[in-house]
What does this fold into?
Amino acid sequence: MRRFDTNGNPLGDVIEVTEMLQAKDTHRLDKDWTEVVLLGNHADQNTALDPYDGDPAQKGFWLATYLYHRFYRLPENVEVRLLEGTHARKDGSRRFDTISARRTKGVFAQHETVELPNGIRLHYIYDEPMADTSHNRSVSGSIASNLSTCAVVFQGEMYGVLTGRSWTIEAPSFGIPFGARHISVHIELSDDYPVLPEGYRQFLRYADGEQDQVEAKDFALQVLENRPEWLVDLIHSMAPNSGDSSDEIRSRLQDLLNKLRVRATSPRVDDEGDLDVDLGSGRGSVEGGTSRNGGNGGDGRHKPDDLTVVQTGAQMARMAQNMERAPKLIPLDDALEIEEKQIIGRAGRYYPASGELFINMTYPAVPLMQEQLGREYSQAPDPEVMRQMARGLSRNSMINRVGLAVVFALAKRINREWDEEAMGKALQPESLSLAADNYFDSLQDARRMLGKTLKLKRTDGQEEEQESAIA
It folds into this structure.
């Protein structure tokens, strides 16, 4: 709002108040200071606690959390203190420490920094759970939020911060399919990295090209490929053990992809790219086989052979190089993990960057198929064995249907009428859910397996009853 003095002259945003306060003798004048006034909507609004007048509502320590997710480090000669009522502790003023400062003080269970050849520094932090609570261990002594975060850091400030659900749903693309609630990743750019802060320093833009906004996901592949070994082991330890035959199903999906001859998108050399590459002698290149004079000795040089980026844990395609790889199938039963991936009421979510497919095993198609098989084979001599088989067959058929939906969506890459945007729509959770709903086509194979194993025919009339219900 533009303000004016008593003579109608416009006032700036900064007012020199020294002379005004000398007469009042209410403020210290022996040191420089700045007073910031937050203007509310009415006289009763406490803008230090409720800056938006309840729309949206803010926690009492919003200011401490804002600073915590804003400044990654402070200059050595700067100390910030928060007075009582502006932080998460109950009394007294508290010193503000940045994430970087708390890391050096040993607040977090484990952390490691990986420096890349292009000057980017990747900070990996593990904040272990605190006893039987829903908090991370860093909540002890914290004056702000203790949620894990992912952000881009430039010149000591954090941009594009992901936290809470926003982070857990994106984390698999960064190679963190499990445990994102306790794992933070910060991508720190060098001071001369070609980016420019926006006027209010709310976000970064690339200095070149169309000056797109910089986001953490732009560096997801680097984060995935440079994860420390201890972090990879930690993530694997947090993975659920579902007991489903997902490996066998994945092998069949890979065979199908090989037959369809769907090629993966291969990286290309770009002089303006972020990564330094060398043909070298490892995977991705072979020794030159024939010299100019027709001999077999070659000239010692290498030629590109297979430039496909090999994803961690990805299953190799056997029939041809650069073939698309089958998704890694990850069934989820835990309600919290299903919520984190935002697939409540959805069949699954696929992450192309990491090749991981998370499948919601509580999706209605699973219990509906299990229930029908239970009715049809209710006369089994051992009902418990029958129920366990029905459950396993229902779950595996669900995994297979969702996996097939992903495979056929990837197969659209060979169709020139389908671009990447169209493929992306086919891989959305809603599209996968439609494929999962048709469990009726899976019933016959399940019946055949149950009948062969239990030496039992299904109860008459159940199939007709089901078909009538569908009609």
Notes: The CA atoms of residues 179 and 238 lie 6 Å apart. The longest strand covers residues 157-163. The first helix runs from residue 18 to 24. The two ends are 64 Å apart (CA to CA).
